[in-house]
Amino acid sequence: MADLLTLDDALTAGLRWLYDTEQPDNAWMQHHSQQIHAAGNRFLAFAPTSNVALPIVVIGVTKPTWKDGPHGPTVPANPLTPTELPYLAAELERNGYAVRSTWNGFPGHTGSVGLVRPAHLSQVAAVDRYRAGCQEHPARSVFCECDAWRAGFDRAAPPRPFVSA
Ligand SMILES: [Zn+2]
How far is ligand 1, taken at its centre, from the CA of residue 136, in Å? Predict the structure, then answer.
């Protein structure tokens, strides 16, 4: 297995995907986001659009664990540290990506940064095509399993790992 990316390289790869990668106009992809796994039990996830038509970058724990609280094993045992989400937001600002807001983070397993600059239009369009569902089987919507529906996911361009020299 290849070495995992550093968080910085994962961030670079994800931002290039979000802002510079053109999706084919016959591709679609889920709105949840594209995840890039990084070293240190972390991942970054990039969503071109969410409840508003603006991108989100998520930092999270790849393999979360839980410990006992008052209501059973519901307390994150290996959460993000208090500095990780603020650091991600600061890194984005430092690279010229203005931050709308941040939410979650410590003591949870994931934290999110909302960005001001819209993603590449073709990225948003690909998510919109996903939301529209299978055009050949409208009744099955996004849950269709036909070859035509699956092929659209295969045509989508994934984030390419970018490793700094
Ligand atoms: Zn179908």
Answer: 5
